């Protein structure tokens, strides 16, 4: 019980979830901590639902140049406070990607913008390091789904905004 009392609060007054310490790795703990200045995942989900939004997450592998590939995460239908959560954890607003070879560029159409984050790696990277990066990404998705009204069902692998 004293452990729970010592856990820090989100801005809505709810405690930082104990599971963040018990189950998560360093990466998702960092994500949890960085979003402490915003409402907790439950409150965030409720706010998003009252706005009648249904954010979806698209995770893909994209070829960015002849030497670089990236794991790319794009989140659609984002408003406050989810935009704040994404912004604090390294996402920026971009146009939605079309496919694996055509990453979205600058935003010209704000209502259809997505929030995007990229994890780059060199094409020569050893497979074991790419697998480690993939684990990192899975941890991040486990954390992000707690902010989504549809939870894990809103996370799509190898699909794009326009094709899912
Ligand atoms: Zn809350």
Question: What can you tell me about this protein's structure?
Answer:
- It is a single chain.
- The chain is 32% helix and 18% strand.
- With 164 residues, the chain is an alpha+beta fold.
- The protein has one domain (41-157).
- A five-stranded mixed beta sheet has the order 3-4-2-1-5, with helices on one face.
- Strand 1 and strand 2 (68-75) form a beta hairpin.
- It is globular and about 50 Å long.
- It binds zinc ion (ZN).
- Residues 10, 12, 14, 39-40, 42-43 line the site of zinc ion.
Key structural traits:
164 residues, five-stranded mixed beta sheet, alpha+beta, binds zinc ion
Which regions are unreliable across 5 or more consecutive residues at pLDDT < 50? none
Helix-strand sequence: HHHHEEHEEHE
Q: Number of DSSP helices? A: 6
What is the average of the pLDDT values?
89
The outline comes out as globular
The profile of the biggest β sheet is: 5 strands, mixed
The distinct ligands, each listed once, are: zinc ion
Helix and strand composition category:
alpha+beta
C-alpha end-to-end distance = 44 Å
Strand order of the largest sheet: 3-4-2-1-5
What is the domain tally? Answer: 1
Task: Give helix % range.
Answer: 25-40%
Total strand segments? 5
What percentage of amino acids are in beta strands? 15-25%
- The Rg value, from CA coordinates, equals 16 Å
